[in-house]
Amino acid sequence: MKRIDDTSKNTKLARYLPWLAAGVALIGAVSGLFGSGQVRNMDVQRFAQLPVLEGGRVKPLDSIARNSLLVIRSQQSFRYNDRTVNADEWLLDVLFRPEVADDQPLFVINDPDVLGLIGIKQSAERYFSFKTLVPHVDEIQKQSEAAHPIDAKQRTRYQSAIVNLFERLYLYHRLKHTMQIAGSEGGLAQEIKDVAAPGADERQNALRELGLFRALPGVKVSDWRSVGEALRDARAGQPLDKGLAPMARVGDAWAKQDAPAFNAAVAEVLAMARPEELRAAKSELSFNLAQPFYSGMVVYVLALLILFVSWAYKPALLQPVAFAVLLVGVFIHTAGLTSRVILQGRPPVTNLYSSAVFVGWGAVVLGAILEWMYRKGFGTAVAAASGFASLIIAHHLAADGDTMEMMRAVLDSNFWLATHVVTITIGYSGTFLAGAIAIGWTIRKHVVKDPDPAAGKALVSMAYGIICFAVLFSFVGTVLGGIWADQSWGRFWGWDPKENGALLIVLWNAIILHARWGGYARDRGIMAMAIFGNIITSLSWFGVNMLGVGLHSYGFMDKAFWALVAFGSTQLLLIAFALLPRRFWHRGPGPIAPHAPAA
């Protein structure tokens, strides 16, 4: 009787545990939306909703804060005086309390020669304040100007580091001079009083030239004005912009840390914003707070860990749990992609960052479908690993600044973005997923002591089906790209590096299929070729963008170059691993020793 009760309990646990795990994962992922946003009773998060114009698009101040801090410090928050300072509080300090911001350790410096330039011995300390660097700014600028004309691919390590440091210092300098002249007595309120005073035009010109964003809205995007432009126009006889006085009260209240005055001034500033722009800014702020791609990355890791445990303990119980958690990751990933599409008003692929997010999403969805079909845990493994890897790549690409940047004019076509770019990116996803399955097959072949032949055949079938899928989308996407090129540049095909890379993906996938159909390669060979597809796809996706030639060159990146080299090297090692015979790792018992002679 007790055994029957235990069986009933196990059945109920197996039925409800996946739902419970999925619910916990989802609640944890959305918890970032429910923060208070209060700093010393001041509603900083509400001020972060304020829409401003920067980089050609209207966005909330929260996006300015996060992107700027990410560029300067490579983080969106930091510890200072035994507390965590978030990006919005930091931006308010930079704008209205620069004497506080100047003391905060923001600038990460790793290069020993740069540390030597500023007279600091190399140690475990990596972050330095603006106040520490101020005495050396002139020399940093001089060294940067000498290195800047050199092509990025030809710069030494020191030259790259000094150029990068100066760019971050200049970004910080621009932020400090966006709302008021840093360190000026009376701040913005005094600038308004002295708008027509002698010498005020120099300060107004400095604010106009250095200001990073425009905070004073207009009817059209071209009508938005910065604080410096509004002060200059008032000096020329135009009416003083109605938004200047409330903004000055915000700055004065923050400088004095007067919570009631700050909250009242923020409410006044937000009341002047255009309703449609404020709604869009609130939506983007919610997206920033949710951080769906970071949350998705964490959920994918959780799914992988549960799956790994299932291989050693109660697979029948834990594999469905891992799959349920993976589906939560798919949901979060999809919600993040959909939100970006709505916020940008663009299809999901507009730059390298969004392509990394979309490639990962495609691979995860395909992997989840495979798991739904086969129910062996392999689909969950490759899907979660692919999703995590792609979102890690996207996370590092986000360090360059705004990931919702304006499109390049030649790419600014919603129709072709929704057809060519999305279609060929799905082809990338399929090729990477086939390579991931092949890597899983290789590791399993050599590591598992007694691998199940049926499971191995299932993995080969998965990879074969995904390659068929990938070659279709890669081919259609390449043809659509030719049509787009014909309309944009007047030629269907020009042997551009990006075009050549896309063609290589199509040809390589086709070669794999023909090798299978013609019997030239069997399971081991097909899997090795699928892994090599990862190298070809990564070069087409990232490598050609860094060559510095062609119409698709988006700029050389040191980190991306070495990451590509490392990735290609690991894939070559995995190919060699796949081609090694199993007996290389698992030796038999050896020859039977002859019987000893009788005594």
Shape: elongated
> How much of the sequence is in beta strands?
under 5%
Give the fraction of residues assigned to helices: 55-70%
Rg over CA atoms: 29 Å
SSE-based structural type:
mainly alpha
Strands, count: 8
Largest sheet: 2 strands, antiparallel
Count of domain modules: 2
- Spans of 5+ residues with little confidence (pLDDT < 50)? 587-599
Intertermini distance = 61 Å
How confident is the prediction overall: mean pLDDT? 85
Strand line-up in the sheet with most strands: 1-2
Tally of contiguous helical segments: 24
Question: What features would you describe in this structure?
Answer:
The strands form four sheets. The chain has a two-stranded antiparallel ribbon. It is mainly alpha-helical and 599 residues long. Helix content is 66%, strand content 5%.
Describe the structure using short key phrases:
5% strand, disordered C terminus, 8 strands, two-stranded antiparallel sheet, 599 residues, mainly alpha, 2 domains
How is this structure best summarized?
This protein has 599 residues and is mainly α.
Topology summary:
Layout: H1 2-30, E1 38-39, E2 42-43, H2 44-47, E3 51-54, E4 57-60, H3 61-73, E5 77-80, E6 83-86, H4 87-96, H5 98-101, E7 105-108, H6 112-117, E8 127-129, H7 130-133, H8 137-147, H9 157-176, H10 187-193, H11 200-210, H12 227-235, H13 244-256, H14 259-271, H15 275-290, H16 292-310, H17 315-344, H18 352-374, H19 378-397, H20 414-447, H21 453-489, H22 497-517, H23 523-541, H24 558-579
Antiparallel strand pairs: 1-2, 3-4, 5-6, 7-8
